[in-house]
């Protein structure tokens, strides 16, 4: 079976949209009580050979986490984040400054910033926290990404039949 040009264009469009969506994943969704990953990846870890300070701040400029001398500095952390924010020191050499925030609350919603001043690097992420919704019927929500991950292999199998 030969594939039609319109089907090929449709698949190319889906791949383009999937790539666009993944590039825009700067919003993190969570429910009250969840643990969430707030991403911050510096793509040139070879420039991190010297210890550079990294600063995480929330919308009110509260200290979420400071990383100094390749380790979390908990002495400067704002009270509302104490005991709830984790960063793994072994991630430093990879340029991974992503943090995990535990037991998120509605008040945690808003923008966060990961900043490395000495490298002029800044990455922003928005955390949206909603009330926990308990499902009594076991219904699973289908997100656009999960839908595309099922649809793409199906479409590709149709093209290469």
Biggest β-sheet: strands ordered side by side in the sheet: 1-9-8-3-4-5
Strand content: 25-35%
Radius of gyration based on Cα positions: 20 Å
One letter per element, helices H and strands E, the order comes to HEEEEEEEEEH
Structural class: alpha+beta
Instruction: Indicate the low-confidence ranges by residue numbers.
Output: 9-25, 135-152, 154-158
> What is the number of helical segments per DSSP (H or I, 4+ residues)?
2
Q: How is this structure best described in words?
A:
Residues 9-25, 135-152 and 154-158 have low confidence and may be disordered. By secondary structure, the protein is of the alpha+beta class. It is built from 2 helices and 9 strands. It is globular, with a radius of gyration of 20 Å. The protein has helices at 5-23, 144-159, and strands at 27-31, 36-38, 54-58, 63-68, 71-73, 85-86, 99-101, 110-116, 121-130. Helix 1 (5-23) runs antiparallel to helix 2. The longest helix has 19 residues, at 5-23. The strands form 2 sheets. A 6-stranded mixed sheet has the order 1-9-8-3-4-5, with no helix packed on it. The termini are close together.
């Amino acid at each position: 079976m030969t594939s039609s040009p319109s089907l090929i264009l449709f698949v190319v469009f889906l791949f383009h949209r999937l790539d666009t969506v993944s590039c825009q994943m700067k919003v993190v969704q969570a429910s009250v009580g969840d643990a969430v990953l707030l991403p911050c990846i510096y793509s040139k870890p070879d420039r991190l050979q010297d210890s550079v300070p990294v600063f995480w701040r929330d919308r009110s400029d509260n200290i979420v986490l400071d990383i100094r001398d390749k380790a979390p500095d908990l002495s400067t952390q704002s009270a509302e984040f104490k005991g709830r924010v984790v960063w793994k020191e072994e991630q430093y050499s990879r340029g991974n400054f992503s943090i995990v925030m535990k037991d998120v609350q509605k008040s945690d919603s808003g923008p966060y910033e990961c900043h490395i001043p000495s490298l002029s690097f800044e990455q922003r992420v928005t955390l949206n926290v909603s009330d926990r919704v308990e499902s009594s019927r076991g219904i699973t929500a289908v997100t656009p990404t999960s839908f595309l991950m099922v649809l793409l292999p199906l479409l590709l199998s149709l093209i290469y039949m």
